[in-house]
Amino acid sequence: xxxxxxxxxxxxxxxxxxxxxxxxxxxxxxxxxxxxxxxxxxxxxxxxxxxxxxxxxxxxxxxxxxxxxxxxxxxxxxxxxxxxxxxxxxxxxxxxxxxxxxxxxxxxxxxxxxxxxxxxxxxxxxxxxxxxxxxxxxxxxxxxxxxxxxxxxxxxxxxxxxxxxxxxxxxxxxxxxxxxxxxxxxxxxxxxxxxxxxx
Length: 199
Hints:
Structural class: alpha/beta
Strand content: 15-25%
Number of helices: 6
Number of strands: 7
Order of helices and strands: HEEHHEHEHEEHE
Number of domains: 1
CATH class: Alpha Beta
Distance between the termini: 29 Å
């Protein structure tokens, strides 16, 4: 019963509202993030280390390299219960050079479960160390600076569900939302499988 209860508990996370001290030189941004260019409040299925969905997420990420259909259904249900407004009209995901298919495959299946189109519009321009290896928020931000871009295609209009597997520092989602909003997307709703302890 306890596991069943934990699997019904999702965790909100707040968007970042300021760029790090010293800004992000490669993106030429600093100070407060324009409200129109911020991510909206996000949702995570669970917090890393808790019971509930932990075994399924760890197995998918580190053993199977494939997240289960059960996790797809759980995230689709979480969005329906969450009911963000304005509702997402399309889905995209955070790209990865380290695990190029893991999140994109998952996001495609979540989009299908929600009856929404999937558009892979974000790309990683180069490999950087994992955020969890950084000592503080400024280092985490510098680690992202310049490493994420749009693929040059047309950005669909309307609000978008932005999917990732883990949320460490929120800087990656912050930059992704800024890129999407500055190029004409609607509201960006981040969704993740897990929050880590680095937020």
